[in-house]
Amino acid sequence: LQLKPHRYEALAGTGECFDQMRQVPQAIAAYEQAVAAVSVRGEWWYRLGRLQLDASRTADSVRSLSRATILGEAEAHRPAWL
Prior knowledge:
Structural class: mainly alpha
């Protein structure tokens, strides 16, 4: 990321790694950076919303999951997470 900061999928991947290690605050921060840059990835919004819900950030979770739903419904093939 230091060499190629435009690689936002790496941020999402970092968020997924932190999630698997159950380091929720770090996972949330990574996904927030990823969706701030590329806001059209519904799965990233879904994962962020799920993590926010785990962290009792309900209002943030509702916003993220709502965005994920809108983006997921617009996809040609219905995503499994939807």
